[in-house]
Amino acid sequence: MARTTNRLSARTAATLTKPGRHADGDGLYLSISPDGSRRRWVFLFRWREAGETGAGKLREMGLGSASSVSLARARELATAARVHLAAGRNPLTARIAEPEIRTPTFAEMADEVLASIETGWRNPKHREQWRMTLTRYCEPIRPLRVDAITTEHVLSVLKPLWTKVPETASRLRGRIEKVLDAARVKGHRTAENPARWRGHLDHLLPKRQKLTRGHHKALPYEKVPDLMTRLRRSGSISALCLEFTILTAARSGEAMGARWSEFDLERGIWTVPRERMKAGREHRVPLSTRAQEIVAGLAVARTGDLVFPGAKADRPLSSMALEMVLRRMKVDATVHGFRSSFRDWAAEMTSTPREIAEAALAHTLENKVEAAYRRTDLFMKRARLMEDWSSYMYNTSF
């Protein structure tokens, strides 16, 4: 005899896309909207109000979104509704008994954690990365209650990524650990955190080869002048942006996001606001003669707020635009690596003190005492250094 309840499996419920109601049995349905954008659990039942005749009208009771309410939880809620019906109570108006603290799903807890910490992030990309990893990669565990997640669940998420994209997998592990730690603090978990690395997952997953910070492939500074000549001949927006980035020793994001309001061409200053700087502090960049020429030339055909606009005036260049310029020119280096080229040049070819070269790169002082007493950004000395860097690259008077 065909079963009338529990027709759906968790996998079927997660993969169904056909619009309409899909029965689990005894009144519980997975309802998918015509455009597929809404997937929710509903409980259908008949209820006869006072004065009505017959079996009563068909009523619908919503049990929550399928993205946050698991199949098991939907069945629990449907069972509670049936209990009310059997007792002669309308489940839509009766209070369905639940634990004093309802245990949230991983999806609900992840959303709560994100909401509490994302206001402290300056970079929208950072927020998107957290949300994407906790949504796409964690899809298998999102419907699970946080107190039901085990080591095996965590490994099922991490193993497919661990050797393929180790940096992403490591960050994902830390984010899962943070969500489950938050669940424990709120009283939703009592067991040890299954995403913990030290003394736990380090025995189950191979040790990750850590990236060495700062080792971006760099072009030897002796070869930079030839590249700058080629960039100058190109004249494309991407090539000009890369040339400007190298001239100023800036990070690519700072240059690509540059706005006209940040420039004082009469004084030769580019002021990058704190919200666009990695260190969170405003940074004044002295512009060499060539850097000023690039900005002044673009100002003639200015179409929007961005100095280096993308295909649309109000949108910046693609994040890969500068790297693609290097690939087309067959230059084996990264954009960030030119900061290393500049630093090596300053150390080898000039007598510039270390603190001035570091200030030109907008690096923060490691010595906290020295940082506390530093009251100048060494602008005038940096201005001479950046003009010398430009002269070296264009083989002028350096």
UniProtKB/TrEMBL annotation:
<feature type="domain" description="Tyr recombinase">
    <location>
        <begin position="214"/>
        <end position="386"/>
    </location>
</feature>
<feature type="domain" description="Core-binding (CB)">
    <location>
        <begin position="104"/>
        <end position="184"/>
    </location>
</feature>
<keyword id="KW-0229">DNA integration</keyword>
<dbReference type="InterPro" id="IPR010998">
    <property type="entry name" value="Integrase_recombinase_N"/>
</dbReference>
<dbReference type="InterPro" id="IPR044068">
    <property type="entry name" value="CB"/>
</dbReference>
<dbReference type="Pfam" id="PF00589">
    <property type="entry name" value="Phage_integrase"/>
</dbReference>
<dbReference type="InterPro" id="IPR050808">
    <property type="entry name" value="Phage_Integrase"/>
</dbReference>
<dbReference type="Pfam" id="PF22022">
    <property type="entry name" value="Phage_int_M"/>
</dbReference>
<keyword id="KW-0233">DNA recombination</keyword>
<dbReference type="InterPro" id="IPR002104">
    <property type="entry name" value="Integrase_catalytic"/>
</dbReference>
<dbReference type="Pfam" id="PF13356">
    <property type="entry name" value="Arm-DNA-bind_3"/>
</dbReference>
<dbReference type="InterPro" id="IPR011010">
    <property type="entry name" value="DNA_brk_join_enz"/>
</dbReference>
<keyword id="KW-0238">DNA-binding</keyword>
<protein>
    <submittedName>
        <fullName>Prophage integrase IntA</fullName>
    </submittedName>
</protein>
<dbReference type="InterPro" id="IPR013762">
    <property type="entry name" value="Integrase-like_cat_sf"/>
</dbReference>
<comment type="similarity">
    <text>Belongs to the 'phage' integrase family.</text>
</comment>
<dbReference type="InterPro" id="IPR038488">
    <property type="entry name" value="Integrase_DNA-bd_sf"/>
</dbReference>
<dbReference type="InterPro" id="IPR053876">
    <property type="entry name" value="Phage_int_M"/>
</dbReference>
<dbReference type="InterPro" id="IPR025166">
    <property type="entry name" value="Integrase_DNA_bind_dom"/>
</dbReference>
